[in-house]
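User:
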Amino acid sequence: MKRFNRFFKATLLAFLCSLTTSVNAELPADSLLLAKMDSVEISLLTCGPGQEAYELYGHTALRIEGYDFPFTDSRGREHIYNDVAVNWGLFSFKAKFFYLKFIFGLTDYTVGMAPMFAFLDEYEEEGRWVRQQKLNLQPDEKLRIIDAVIVNNLPENRFYRYNYFYDNCTTRADRMIANHLNNKPSAHLDSLLPRTYRENIHAYNTKERWARMGNDLLLGLKADRPISEEQSLFLPINLMNYYEGAQIQEGDSTRKLVSESELILADDGRHSFATYNTPLRVFGALFILLLIITGNELKYKRNLWLLDAVLLSATAFGGLILTAMLFSQHPTVRLNLQILLFNPITLIGLWPAVGNARKNHSHWLWKCYAGCILLFFLGNFFQDYAEATNFLALSLLIRCCRRIFNKAS
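Assistant: Predicted structure:
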């Protein structure tokens, strides 16, 4: 009887084991994948600024740990990595007509994946910090995000039309997360109150004043319109701060979007952008210098026509760039009142005007340009101009007045 009981129990156990195995074998593939998601971690990576102009505002990427991704090296060998960084900020300066395409808003960026150690090595070499925010996600949310990343990384889907404010590495990473959550995250931070695009980027280029001036020269009226908090998330640090306080509503309960935040790579302190020769100092000095030169020119009855030729040529060159921006795909650069100062019309009458100046005669160009400069000053009420451009405008107005009112000197 005891042997029978043992035999019966062994048979029953074998039957139950086989039943369990058959049930697991018949589970849907999605259920098996969801079970694997418990060991997967997805994080938002925010990278600090670099030394290049396009690195001043940082960078955003995603980190996926615990999921096997295949990689093929340059020799065609396949490797499997289960800790990767997904990056939407890849581009090449060597691309055909890169700078021309960038000006007209026709630059294509691409998404790419790299082993996490390679991603960190690059930023460590550049001395930039990296902060990781582990996301508090449900298994189905992780699965949808990974599926979307895989589809996005297919050769036919990798490229996208880059736009600094509306479609960049940060907005892409944000949409990759937010669009695949069960509910939309929400947060409100006092540091991200609605303001303009220009004010947002000013918060991160206060030390690099020349790059800031270059940005402001290209940005037009639309960059000074109020934007929402959500629109402010085009900047990496803004998105990082937003996620830190974001919560997801689930019925009567909420869960934080970020479960853990840590600095995984520290800044080595090499990025110091402060400079003594700021645009305000340089163009302020230019204004004083031109004021002195014009006074001496009048006093000693000299005619520095070559100085006027240089000034008009320089502003006309800037005007050609702003004129080209009228046809750009970037909406925030098309209407720019600074074109009144950096004015391409000076090219039309440049040599006749300079020729008349050599003979101490006036020309219609000086009056026309002076009127444009006065309209430029009025534009201060509608647009935030680049730093020190008002000093430059005063300097040029002085030279116009010299030619208009002292033509017989």
